[in-house]
Write a structure and sequence with these properties.
Layout lengths: L9 H4 L34 H28 L8 H34 L1
């Protein structure tokens, strides 16, 4: 028997945004993902200044590493050490870490802007 109280259609997909200021504890895109288990502090939150510092510091480092390893890979001939495959792996690792740092930087900046604008 279907549940008649269940919301269907486009009404179900609407996300209600808070009209007033957004408190620091709810500044994420989704909010709290998991219920508290009771072992963590009530005011536990990510240090956005530290994340901003680390992302700003390591994004250029990983981008430079990506470029350096890519250039080194193009200059390496067959039979040389390190091999093209290992340099390609290092290039991909640096590129993935660059993407991670860039994404984290965007999330931190968005949360800081959202906290300050409300």
């Amino acid at each position: 028997m279907p549940d008649r109280n269940r919301i269907r259609g486009p009404e179900r997909r609407r996300v209600r945004r808070p009209a007033g200021p957004v408190p620091r504890s709810r500044s994420g895109v989704v909010g709290r993902r998991w219920e508290r288990t009771g072992t963590e502090p009530v005011t536990a939150r990510s240090d956005l200044r530290l994340r901003l510092l680390l992302s700003s510091l390591f994004l250029p480092v990983f981008l430079a590493g990506t470029g350096l390893f890519w250039w080194w890979m193009t200059q390496t001939g067959p039979g040389e050490a390190p091999s093209t495959g290992s340099l390609r792996t290092l290039t991909l690792i640096c590129a993935a870490l660059s993407l991670f740092a860039l994404t984290d930087l965007a999330v931190v900046l968005r949360r800081r802007h959202r906290e300050r604008s409300h």
